[in-house]
C-alpha cells in the first residue's frame, strides 16, 4: 500500500509544479515587480468610496467590489520575459480566453484577452500582456514586460478607470478596450 501511495505521489508531483501560476512562480523574485490585491482590500477601497457623494467614487466602488483577484508582474529581465511569454501562450491554449484587442505603438505590443461574462460588457477574466515597453521606469528599473490578471464580474466599461488610478503601464489601452464594448 505504501508503494502505491509513494508511486502516485511521485507521478503527481511534477504536475503540481507544472500547473503553477506564473504569478506564484515569480512572486518572490527580485528581478520581478509583483502586485497582488486581495478581495478584502478591494472591499475596503469600495467601502471608502461608497460614502462619497462623488459619482466617480461610486462607480469606482462598484468596480472594485466586483473584482475577486488582481495580480500584476513586471520585469526588465529578457529571460523572465520569455518565460512569461511562454506561459501566456500555454495559458491561452488551455483556457476559454479570447482575444479582445491588440495595440502596437512604437516597439510596444499590448494584448487583451477575456473570458466571457454575463453579457457583452462583462467578463469573468481579463488578461493584459504588454511587451516591448519603452521609456517606463519603476524604482530605477526599465520595465520591458507586464502581465496583468483580473478576475471577477468585471465591467469593461469601468475597468480602465481602475488602471488609470493605479497608474499601470497599458492602462490607457485598457480604457480604450472598455470603450469599444460600450453599447
TrEMBL record:
Top-rank lineage group of the source organism: Bacteria
Q: What is this protein called?
A: DUF4252 domain-containing protein
UniProt source species: Sungkyunkwania multivorans
Q: What is the lineage of its organism?
A: Bacteria, Pseudomonadati, Bacteroidota, Flavobacteriia, Flavobacteriales
Amino acid at each position: 500500500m505504501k508503494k502505491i501511495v509513494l508511486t502516485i505521489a511521485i507521478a503527481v508531483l511534477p504536475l503540481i509544479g507544472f500547473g503553477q501560476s506564473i504569478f506564484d512562480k515569480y512572486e518572490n523574485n527580485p528581478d520581478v515587480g509583483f502586485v497582488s490585491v486581495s478581495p478584502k482590500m478591494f472591499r475596503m477601497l469600495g467601502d471608502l468610496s461608497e460614502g462619497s457623494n462623488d459619482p466617480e467614487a461610486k462607480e469606482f466602488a462598484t468596480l472594485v467590489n466586483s473584482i475577486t483577484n488582481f495580480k500584476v508582474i513586471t520585469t526588465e529581465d529578457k529571460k523572465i520575459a520569455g518565460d512569461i511569454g511562454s506561459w501566456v501562450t500555454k495559458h491561452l491554449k488551455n483556457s476559454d480566453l479570447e482575444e479582445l484587442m491588440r495595440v502596437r505603438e512604437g516597439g510596444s505590443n499590448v494584448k487583451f484577452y477575456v473570458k466571457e461574462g454575463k453579457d457583452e460588457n462583462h467578463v469573468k477574466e481579463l488578461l493584459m500582456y504588454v511587451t516591448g515597453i519603452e521609456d517606463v521606469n519603476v524604482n530605477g528599473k526599465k520595465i520591458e514586460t507586464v502581465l496583468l490578471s483580473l478576475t471577477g464580474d468585471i465591467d469593461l466599461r469601468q475597468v480602465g478607470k481602475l488602471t488609470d488610478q493605479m497608474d499601470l503601464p497599458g492602462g490607457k489601452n485598457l480604457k480604450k478596450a472598455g470603450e469599444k464594448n460600450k453599447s
